[in-house]
Amino acid sequence: NVDPAHTSRPRAVKRRSQAPRPDLPIEPPAALTMVAVVLGLSGFATLVYEIAWVRVLSLLVGPTTYAFAATLVTLIAGIGCGSLIGSRLAGRSRRPALWLSITMAATAMVTSWSTAVVGRNVPRLLAEPLSQLAPALAGLLSGHAVLVAALIVPTALGLGVGFPLALELLGSEAGVARRVGMVYAVNTLAALAGSLVAGFIAIPLLSLQPTLQLVSAMLLLGASVVIAGVKLPPRLRVVGVAVVALAVLPIVWNPQWDRDVLASGVYKYARRSTPGLDPMATLRAGKLLYYRDGAASTVSVKRLTGVISMSIDGKIDASSSGDMLTQKVLAHLPLLLHPDPRQVLVIGLGSGVTAASALVHPIARLDVVEISPEVVQASQYFKAQNRGALRDPRTHLILGDGRSHLLLSRRQYDVIVSEPSNPWMAGVAALFTREFFAAARERLAPGGVICQWAHTYDISEHDLRSIVATFRSVFPQGTMWLLGEGDVLLVASNSPLDVRLDGLTASWRRSGVAADLGEASVLEPFALLSQYVAGPRELERYADAVAPQTDDRMALEFSGPRALNSGADRHNASMLRALLQPGSAPMAVRRAMEAASGPQWRDRATMLLKIDDYEGAYRDYARALQSDSTDALALDGFVQAAGATGQQAEALARLKDMIGGKPGISTIRIAASRLLASSGAFQDAIAVLTPRGAIELDEGALLEQLASIYADLGESQKLDQTVARLRQFRPDTARTFYFAAAAEFLRQRFAQAATLAEKSVALDPQSSSAHNLVGVSRASEGRPEQARHAFLKALVLAPRDVTTYVNLGLLELSAGNRAAAA
């Protein structure tokens, strides 16, 4: 009683197993070799592709754990779906070899396409919406997932389709399990080799774009092996060869990536673009000095006029301007708190400035641990700032992981400085766990000091509290210091630090320390002691009921990226400043704060102004003026900070109150005039300079401000009259020559203007406005190279001078350099 419906299946299978495919090799051993080679190439290409794409997406959407997850999930899902399609195709096609060769060639083509667009077109797709609004993390992740799918899924599908097609070529007769096992082993070993080659050879030696092109080449090679190894009719062989040849073209003609944009941190800095303007101009701004794809990250160095910055995966980690205070204090603060530091460890080289500052102290040995050789190379661009720290005989560079060094080394250190990248970057959170701090504690010598960097920006309040809780769990006697608005230093020892604060002033007298800190406008111990915001009690209160980070519970890796676009960091700095209650600071800090003079607050404000903490600078300048309202330097900084914070009205009201109390003091009226002129109230600015019945204590300074207003207004006749009077009081000063040059420029006597402006520069080389005037005069003469040099010098001295940027842009535009002008 056999059911006829079932009798056809064995016969169909029997016919299939007995009838060889028309495009199989003649001998089964040849089929086994060919399939092993093809799947080996496929496995190798798959892992190279995955690792390269993780790195590419780190540059575009940020080096977070989400970028890795998106790549991995998309690739696996694509391969899985492709395998389903391939298995159906293999079971129905009479020519699986032909389909395999076409699939591999087509996959090579789409890989080349995605390689081409990702480095040129995709950054704009990401930058434009980010420049217009700050989307929530959920929207970002979904948008990034769509982007990843569009770029990766076509290749992943092709890789998946090819696998069952290749297995189909092994046949279905006896021994097929052994043959499948052998080729699967080859595929797995090749995949392992691909991961090693991609991470340690291809990407560091070739960079990312050629590595992705290598994937296309591997797939094309596999397609060629199939065509060469099977029997095909001439017509079909021509089709296969044509498809392979066609796939070669996008590999050969793959346009070069726009490295200026890839190195710019699209995911983070596109939001800083001016609304309504092309964000790509902002991202491309500056000159790319160094770019290298390394095993761990992509490192770049860019010069934007006078500022050099180093980026890791697009995120700026060091610079020659705003980061100088933090880079120096990271070393000086813990070393000043140690009475006799001899052995020092710095985890993270960066620009090398921290290492250089450590070497100022009389130490015996400095170990610098840096995981990325590319960072070491890039640090050479900061040789003016780091003074060749790596060449110092006391310095020992260790290329490796800082955490591993702490765990494996047996050396004891008097001071350990840990300055990793931001914890939202994938892998960095491991340097903020309890286990890491415990390893550091084990390496501290008796009385040793640790200084751990953290930050208040791009981080939620909860995550910052968690970092503090983790640090406290290992160093319960820890302290917190806040540099400006953004950088946090957690400093601790295995004993309380309060008694050591008294010794900071004595340590300050070590040779070279004051001079090195003076480069960051840290002029005396008060400037450091005033950054103290919390001791053990305050940190305990701040970190109360917050779970610490551990290796088994590294939530920071996942929560950290959520703060990038959330604005959750808005109040972190103000909360930290509020931790210290009146009277609860250590005695050394209280004495320094209570005894601080007006000039000390002014110098502190100047320090904050250099790191763009305009709110803090405004507060400190105002405090300095309460002690001495005639301090010209404090008034000058007060006006600058008021303009940067938008508090011109409040500042002007304060200045008018000061004028009412001291009508004969020129410096106050000059400051008020500058503030009025900056807001366009030129007549009021002139009137405040010449009140009736005022006793002029410094008519020369008043005339300089009056000349500045007339120069801005373009009133050449009044400017001439003012310059003539100015020459009576200050005949041979830099400012007199400057305004005389401005008067000549207004009369379009450009050669004379340039000569006078150059005299001003000779007397005051630090005057950015004089360099700028040289530039516009030479440009008007038709001397673009001299003008460009003068503008760039001006921007080195004043990187935020809008006028000079406009002048330089106009110069480049007149020379036809539209990209440079933008």
Characteristic terms for this protein:
eight-stranded mixed beta sheet; globular; 822 residues; 41 helices; disordered N terminus; four-stranded antiparallel beta sheet; alpha/beta; 62% helix; 12 strands; 9% strand; single chain
Description:
Helices cover 62% and strands 9% of the residues. The protein contains 41 helices and 12 strands. Helix 4 (96-118) runs antiparallel to helix 8. It starts with a helix and ends with a helix.
Total beta strand runs: 12
The count of helical stretches stands at: 41
**N-to-C span:** 86 Å
Identify low-pLDDT runs: 1-20, 693-697
Radius of gyration: 33 Å
The largest sheet, given as strand count, sense and whether it forms a barrel, is: 8 strands, mixed
Helix and strand content put the structural class at alpha/beta
User: Reading side by side through the largest sheet, how are the strands ordered?
Assistant: 7-6-5-8-9-11-10-12
**Morphology:** globular
Helicity, as a percent range: 55-70%
Q: What is the average per-residue confidence, as pLDDT, rounded to a whole number? A: 89
Strand content: 5-15%
What does the secondary structure layout of this molecule look like, with pairings?
Blueprint: H1 4-18, H2 28-61, H3 65-92, H4 96-118, H5 122-132, H6 137-168, H7 176-206, H8 208-229, H9 234-252, H10 259-262, H11 266-269, H12 279-284, E1 287-293, E2 298-304, E3 307-312, E4 315-319, H13 324-336, E5 343-347, H14 353-360, E6 365-370, H15 373-378, H16 383-386, E7 395-399, H17 402-408, E8 413-418, H18 434-443, E9 444-455, H19 461-474, E10 479-483, E11 487-493, H20 498-501, H21 504-508, H22 513-518, H23 525-529, E12 532-534, H24 536-542, H25 556-559, H26 572-577, H27 587-595, H28 598-610, H29 614-627, H30 632-645, H31 648-661, H32 666-678, H33 682-687, H34 699-713, H35 716-729, H36 734-746, H37 750-763, H38 768-781, H39 784-797, H40 802-814, H41 818-821
Parallel strand pairs: 5-6, 5-8, 6-7, 8-9
Antiparallel strand pairs: 1-2, 2-3, 3-4, 9-11, 10-11, 10-12
Helix pairs in contact: 2-3, 2-6, 2-7, 2-8, 3-6, 4-6, 4-8, 4-9, 7-8, 8-9, 13-14, 18-19, 19-24, 28-29, 28-30, 29-30, 30-32, 31-32, 32-34, 34-35, 34-36, 35-36, 36-37, 37-38, 38-39, 38-40, 39-40
